[in-house]
Design goal:
about 5% strand; about 70% helix; 7 strands; mainly alpha; Glutaredoxin; Serine Threonine Protein Phosphatase 5, Tetratricopeptide repeat
Amino acid sequence: MNVIVLATALGGPAVAAPELKAVRKLCQTGHYDECIESAQQALAGGAWTEDWHLLLVKALETTGRYDRASAAAEALESRYSDSLRALLTLHRVRAATGDRRAAELLGRIRALLNSPGARFSRADELVTAGRAALLLGDEPKTVLQTYFDQAVKKDPAFRDVYLAAGQLALDKHDDALAAQWYQRGLARLGPDADLHLGLARAFLHGERKELTRSLDAALSLNPHLVPAWLLRAEQELDGEDHPAARKALGAALAVDAGNPEAFALLAVLAHLENDPKGEAQARDKALARWPGNPAVDTLIGRKLSENYRFAEGAAAQRRALKADPGYLPAKILLAQDLLRLGRESEGWALAEEVHARDGYDVVAFNLAVRLRPHVDALATLRGGDFLVRMDPQDAAVWGDAALALLREARATVDKKFGVRGAGKVMVEIFPEQADFAVRTFGLPGGGAYLGVCFGGLITMNSPSGNSGATANWKAVLWHEYTHVVTLGLTRNKMPRWLSEGISVREEIARDRTWGQHMTPRFREMILGGELHPVGRLSGAFLAPKDGDHLMFAYFQSALVVEWIVERYGFEALKGILHDLGQGMEMNQALVAHTAPLPEVEKAFDAFARGRARALGPRADWSKPEAALLARSDAETVHRWVGQHPNNVWGLEREAQRLIDAQKWQEAKAPLEKLIALDPEQRGGDNAYLQLALVHRKLGETAKERAALERVAASDSDAQPAFLRLMELAVTAGDWAAAAQWAERVLAVKPMTAVAYRSLGRALEERVERAATDKAAADGAVAAFRNVLRLEPADPADAHLRLARLLRKRDPRAARRHAVDALAEAPRFREAQKLLLELHGEGR
């Protein structure tokens, strides 16, 4: 260690003392005991500077020695009574233990901050002043601009400015700004455990892969960094890996044996494991350092709500607010819980209160200012126990269809799972993806989500909105309603994998084209050893490598559910749900109704591998060597395919080569070979779609239609195929098929005018064949009214058809539509003729 030479206070001989920079590095890398010893040695040797005191206090706090930290902070304040840093340090130590004397320091801090002679010119002075201003309640943006921005200009290498600014942003839920500050610090200073930890925390509600990467970096630099172990415990808890979470908490408590956050998380674990005694004991230990600490119950409540225990989470936030009625972190979390529980008036009021008191809190701003006006502008539809909120235009066009599907789901899924007297369900369908994200998560993001169920509340992206995703809204809504049932049966006490697996399975039970199915990519992942252990399957959803792996998590979950039902019966699945509702831990419930977990995992692995091998069993799924993959020129691929005639990779590239060259006739052979090898073609570039294109280019309409029908038989959101099939059916006058494909189009994009026109024409034909078919007549009227709502290219035609359909049932409406047809097209002869006839009939 580097040393400096100090003279003792009594003028004795010089002694060696540690160097401040080297000891500070010890503290930053987790050598806290050495840091404390060195700081005490330096102070004993006469090094009476603030920095040594501050370092000593920080190391004592980190290791939970608050009695000694308090004494050291008081010694610091006694010697430097007019130092803002000294007062802030003493306040922090006292506040951490609930010492009421902390509040007494605020007046002195304010006086120093606002002293006429105060000058904050150095970077360290500016950061200290900024922290003081935040403590006193100054506006955060002003603090950033006045103090932290100026500090980084004064000294871009001053570490504390990045930590202080990043923490400010995290405290206000501005994760993006926090990440920017921490990244700037790392770019300027290089690897640093605390900066990496801050960056990890900035990704807590975002990209989990970045969180893991930053957290690993922090712990590699400081293996004893308590907040990092706490964040790792949260990460493991989110993945439902309770043993790993306990291990991480053990590492934190090894450094700080009384850490309140660690014991709060242990209380959460005990709650999730249905251990009320253990929960109470852990909570008591969390409050031992400060019995009135509101942060303890706030953390407990947040983690319970993140595990879908919203009622329990809200109760914890109320406990926190009982301890400190003004504690804003508990208020905003309670607001979100109440909004998810359907207690909207109280939830909105709390969000608005937090925003009024802290205008920089991003979640409060998003809820109270950005989201609420948009929610208030949604139209409300009611049907039995269902309340659906949608964009007014969406509600007018397809709101009734959404209600009808919900009623069907209730009748089907409730009966299947033996549910009686289910409660009210609220569904909110947002035209703006950002509104969906804020309503669901409190923050923008969540682009991978189409819908989320909280129990009695479902939130969804509107298929007519701006989410950028193409999905079958009926499948999404059916999936989310199944969550309503299973979450209700288990009182929200079920792991994510089981909840998602059942919902996907129920999608497929309703419509074989819905849900996740075996694909070549999933086959490759299973046979490549990427199955998650059933006992830790929820972890597959936590930080998937990419979109394929996220979809694979849904697929594997559904496959496990299918295996349980196939092997042990549907009653076993219901038994698992019942036991979860009684508080049993998931793996215990699984074992109780199936077999010991090792046997379950071994048997399921064999089952999944069997399913994977059943996909295209005659096909050669191997990929060629890297050199060929890199080259892939036409001549080489063609020769390689000749040598490997059943290879999927080669046939796909050979087909694509011929299509790109517009050699339509020649492209048939490899496409037909692919289909023969794997008839269950799926995905956006499957062989059926390509073959349909080839047939279209060759004018082989019947064959094109047959190929597209194979696509439609296995894909619920193949919108281009549905539109083309509808077009072909209309051209052929096949009105039954036209209606079928129009319905498939509308299940993906329900605001498609041409589909409503095709549906209306098909139903109109039925009415012409059977004038007494009231259902067809009603459907045709509804379809053409939707055409008009969607501003069609030919509104006059829609008005004329409505006039004809309404001629006998509502003559006044018929005349109005005839007039409207003429208003759109004054020379429209058919409308003129009909209006004259209607006028004569009205005499």
